[in-house]
Amino acid sequence: MARFDDAELNADPRGSTQPRSGSGIAIPGQEGNTIEVPATRSAISDAASFMHNLSLAPSMKDRRNSRNSFGTSLPIPRSPRMSRLSSVQRGSGAPSVSRDILASQVQDINKEKTAKAKNMAFAFDIDGVLAHGNHAIEEAKVALKILNGDNELGIRIPHILLTNGGGKTEEARCAQLSEILEQPISTDQFIQSHTPMQALSEYYETVLVLGGDGFKIREVAENYGFKDVVHPKDLLAWDPTISPWATLTEEEKAEARPRDFTKTKFDAIMVFADSRDYQTDMQLIMDLLLADDGKIFTKAEDPVATRIPIYFSQGDLLMPTEHKGLPRLTQGAFRISIEAQYKTLTGVDLERVVYGKPERATYTYADEVMKSWMEELHGVARLPDNIYMVGDNPASDIIGGNMYGWNTCLVRTGVFQGGENDLNSPANFGVFPHVLEAVKAALAKELGEDFKLKWNPKVNPVTHGDGASAIE
Ligand code: G3P
Ligand code: MG
Asked: How far, in Å, from the CA of 166 to the mean position of ligand 2?
């Protein structure tokens, strides 16, 4: 299967396994639980192209670039099996044992078709493909039902969910998705934008974590193993003047963990989801980026030299929502604003790391999840030859899938609102009105046009082998 060629990635050769010297940050060695994947996205701010020339002070123009080398690699967990998240009981939601026995008899007889079915898998985007916000897309329910065994072989066809969304724990999101999609979704087949970032907990002790509703993101970070997780509301509860117009409810005050933050040295900033309070979050990020080595409310003589790293969980500019008009702005817009503020204040581009689709590290991690999900469903931990990515955003789902050698299907239920295909990042398998049509087309290609999208419980495996039709 085609994969990224490192030579094409413009990856900094310092990136993959060499410890970064001079950063003052403990980097796990080869024996650690992480793999460092060279970044495919530039480590340098995108803001310049969006900025008016006047916003860059002439006196700043000659300042050197940051000495930090963050962005040269993106650590991901070495294996999902070692993940702290793999807590859901294996096999939950699977068909009953008696039905499994009958299905395996049918599969034994239809060996050729079964082998093909075991050599394919899907990677689904969520927002704009399976759901809009908290509402399932109806066709997605049918598509997942087919893949969970409602087909002539009664076979489960592996599918993982690969979303740039986030902001709550994998368990919470899977429970919500299982409910609205009426199909079981396990954390073992699920990747949010920040899921691979759990690897970073081996690198950083004290982190400012931002985004999402309430304090949910703290639970996410603590599940990932971060030891000292600071939330913007902790800082607000300690000193309400840090953000001129922010207020905390009594409940928030009770849940916040204020302390004397003048004694805290932050090691990194992590934006895990969309900000719910741009003013406070931007202010705190800027405070930390301009501080002396992560000591908040200090002012570095040379902020570029002592700046702590900043990570964003994904780079999408737009996302589909329940809103009927144009797609809504998301984390990419927040990041570009941070980059522009930093460049205006310091005159240099902000170095930062962005995870999520279409970043290679996210797809590398997806491979690992896919392999272990294959093992769960088919007993062999290997990648199938035919992987179909179904997405609605050409700039993340499709470009990433194309680069990674997957078959890509673009659907019309989300961000993409174009004509025949996207002009910049065309889907290589085709454009479909919705996910069900994409799944049907992929199954027809791999298993034949006559492959039945219905499990017949009255099937007689002895009399109904390859080519025979089941008794209704
Ligand atoms: O970009 C924000 C997020 O909602 C996108 O999610 O599932 O379309 O990757 P998804
Ligand atoms: Mg989407």
From this structure: 12
| CA pair distance 266, 291, nearest whole angstrom | 10
Residue closest to 183 by CA, chosen among 215, 162, 156? 156
- Alpha-carbon gap, residue 343 to 158, rounded angstroms: 45
Instruction: Please state which architecture CATH assigns to domain 195-312.
Output: 3-Layer(aba) Sandwich (3.40)
pTM (two decimals) = 0.85
C-alpha–C-alpha distance, residues 158 and 295, integer Å = 47
> Who lines ligand 1 at CB under 6 A?
125-128, 163-165, 316, 319, 330, 393
- 165 alpha carbon to ligand 1 midpoint, in Å? 4
For residue 308, how many C-alpha atoms fall within 13 Å in the half-sphere facing its CB?
A: 27
CB 404 within 8 A of CB 365: no
Q: What is the pLDDT of residues 369-408, one digit of tens each?
A: 999 999 999 999 999 999 999 999 999 999 999 999 999 9
User: Which of 134, 160, 163, 399 to probe ligand 1 with, by most ligand atoms within 8 A of CB?
Assistant: 163
